[in-house]
Request: fold
Amino acid sequence: MQSQGEAKKPTLTITDNRTGKSYEVPIENETIKATDLRQIKEHAEDFGIMTYDPAFMNTASCKSTITYIDGDKGILRYRGYPIEQLAERCSYLEVAYLLIHGELPTKAQLADWSTNITAHTFVHENIKKLMDGFHHDAHPMGMLVSTIGALSTFYPSAKHIADKAERQRTFYRLIGKTPTAAAYAYRHSMGFPYVHPDNDLSYAGNFLSMMFRMAEPKYHPHPVLEKALDVLFILHADHEQNCSTSAMRSVGSSQVDPYSAAAAASAALYGPLHGGANEAVLRMLDEIGTKDAIPAFIKAVKEGHGRLMGFGHRVYKNYDPRANIIKRLADQVFEVTGRNPKLDIALELERIALQDEYFIKRKLYPNVDFYSGLIYQAMKFPVDMFPVLFAIGRMSGWLAQWAEMVDDADQKIARPRQIYLGHDKRDVPSAAQRG
Ligand code: ACO
Reply:
């Protein structure tokens, strides 16, 4: 019984008009439990009411303390820290530590974390042989997905997911080896020899070295480009329950090893509506070609012929805060590399779209991908490497989300329900009776 003065816990009353019965279900965190609806039945033997939510438009699949997004206000925070401050004041490895461990590292913790990740950047020689087996024009993202999955066979003890020491080693390996596999995918496609990791360099600097070092005995990354890449990794590190993170959690919920779950997450990121969007932005800018072609292009989009790639977001109904940071970063990068001629088209496209009733009404603003491709291209990354770069940054977020899921007592193997609308029972006809 409720004691005097104790606030009544919020509830929702639902009346089933089929039976006239009312049900009271608790509201916690502005949410009701879908399983609380199962008590609502027309007949005692019924399964009970379910919710129908394709694409999870309004279903929370977990409780999380990692990333906060307010899509209407354009806010993104990791563990409470605004993305703008993290991008300005932290390195990617500090942010990766923050996502996984919940707090920013002390100096000693950061030194230990960086040393361990650096110590795990090398890959087994057989990984190189595996990558050699790909066709010369294999997409680097396809190579990365397969290589991340293959790592599970090199480290079979990673399946002991409750063992904290084992888990920690897997984090070091996946964060350490993903840039190596990513760079090797590029080198393979170019027919260039693989470049060993250079452990004197920063995380981003070493990746640039493995990508672009040729005959020089030591690669010296340009500090502006090295910093820009590090910031891009930070901006891509986590974005709560997006498609690839949901894949990481869902596949991981079968208690498979984290390498296999991360391969599934990378596969989800491969798609053009997710990690492939910045590639699509560049192709679109190429297709538009010149500034005077923009009005006709916008008109075609408004008439339903294609989309303005790099615009719109399921969650952000305001300027994506990452797009703001990237736009500033682009200026710094172009001072070093020279201006990407497509920038003028992008800026003009944005200017026109943001004044257009169609885009205003639908709250369509530039997302993280609208400008990131221009920076990557100026830094000489080929277009098909763009989703691979995204995967490097996102790996720490996937691992943080995976660990949170594994430790969450509420979680079980992911297993959605369906509404069956197929045939009722029928008998198998002989081949002669068919058709
Ligand atoms: N260009 C033109 N119109 C658009 C665009 C766009 N980029 N995005 C949405 N719309 C329109 C839709 O046609 C729809 O109009 P309607 O109401 O008249 O039918 C309305 O805006 C709502 O669009 P939805 O598709 O319902 O929005 P949803 O949340 O499902 O899609 C998505 C979000 C996939 C990002 C979409 O905006 C899109 O396709 N954008 C282009 C691709 C892109 O940039 N993806 C990167 C996402 S960020 C990331 O993954 C890192």
Residues 7-51 form one domain. The first helix runs from residue 83 to 89. The mean pLDDT is 95. Residues 124 and 154 are 8 Å apart (CA to CA).
